[in-house]
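Hello Y.,

Per our agreement to keep a running log of every chain we model this quarter, I'm adding this entry. I've kept the format consistent with earlier entries: sequence first, then predicted structure.
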Amino acid sequence: METESEPYVRLATLRQLHQVVAELNTARSLADTLQTVADGVVNGLGYELACVNLVRPDGDLVVAAFAGNPSAEALITGRVGSRDAWERRLAMGEAWGALRFISYTEGWVLDDDDVPQWYTEGPEPRFEDEWHPSDRLFAPMYATGAAGGELLGVISVDRPRNGRRPGAWGREALQMYAFQAAIAISNARLRANMQRALVRLEREQQALRASEESFRQAFEYAPSGMAIAEMGGDQHGRILRTNDALCRLLGRPASAMRRYSFSDLVHPEDIGTLLRTSAEGGRAELRLARRDGTYVWVSLRNSVVADAADGPRFLLTHVEDIEERKRRELQLAHRASHDSLTGLPNSAELRARLSARLCRRPHAGQPSAVDSLDAAYEHGFDFGPSAQQDEGFDHHVHTVAPEGGENDVDDGTKGLAVLFCDLDGFKSINDRFGHHTGDAVLIEVARRLTSGVRDGDTVARLGGDEFVVLADGLGRADAQDLAVRLRNAIIPPIRVDGRAVRVGASFGIGWAHCGMSADEVLHSADQRMYVEKRSRAKQHRRAG
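Predicted structure for the entry above:
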């Protein structure tokens, strides 16, 4: 039965509850809100101690705020209790609505778990509803206000100031306060998240502005060429913007560059390379046209500038001048493939050019090219749709040799003649006048041989005083005439340092045809040269 004083107590409690709830919404930050929650339990609801345990992202609960005893606050604030231990607490004891009361008679089983705890000292209870120092009372806070919602935290209280366990109205007041505290904490978190998002957005915008300015400066003032071109659509590849370095490299103003695409500027032989490069990370080395009509070697490197909604939109192209490097590479390649003294193709280059004209046909007992290709297909290799036609060489014009021996009548067949030339009397010039004179003779012989052949023929220095001429499309009579002309071109005196010296030349004519290796062809011509040299020596001895 309610006493006359209880309505006044309830009214006073309501006023205090209204006041502390109002204070919940004045806190500026999440930390301030949590401390206000703890202070409100002590100042407004009449408990000596209050602790706010907040759920962390990992699920455990941390003591985030404490009120009522500074000594206890310093000892347990920041300490963590496991989620499992808290689940045991909220599953046992007596349910007072949404609250959970655990009497000292059963709470002793929780004394050794990892949840931070603090008790007020006091005597043993003398009557049934008196508060025991080991009693525990918890007010869970849920995000939706109901027990089925997400657990935000737990308010734990200790010892009401009147020394008695809270009655029905006290329990309802604490439950209502926990409900409002959950709303205040959720709002504080939302405000904190919004503030962090706003700060992050502002930082991202500042970073974007800084990045755009940095890109603009990097683009405009880059020491090498830069261009932005359209990607996709009818205007694919059209240049939208160029920097000063690219304009200087190509000798074209920026306004003129916007009238072109890279396909308009690339060398015709490099257009295929350009088309294969128009992709993310594409790289290529090709030639671009200058305003004066010359071409410059450049290295292109592409990056795709994408839009989150529309996908790839622009192609950012880095253009580096590699003219000097290409020149050095060509020089090195020339040195590797040409004789350093005469400038003629060397032995390796000669064999490469000769091998390029020859295909290997199978010998007796060996599998044919078709059989080999069939076996390759079975193992997963693919050589293209024409690989099995004409013994695998349908793209190749077979090299054939004129029929008959060396003295036979020319049958009209045109082939690849290989003229092996060995200088006569060169060693004596080297021995008598030194290597300087010998080198001068070799240089002049190389010049005379080059002057005596057609533009498409090859004159190579095999080594020492040996030269080789490759002349395609000749019959036997043509090859003999060429050998005579070249021998007559070498015989005239060669003047070195005011001194006239002479060398002769012996020629052997071999014929290349498919099925032979380059070494076999050269060996055949070499043997014919020695046959001719011995024949001439015999004739000379007879004449003497």
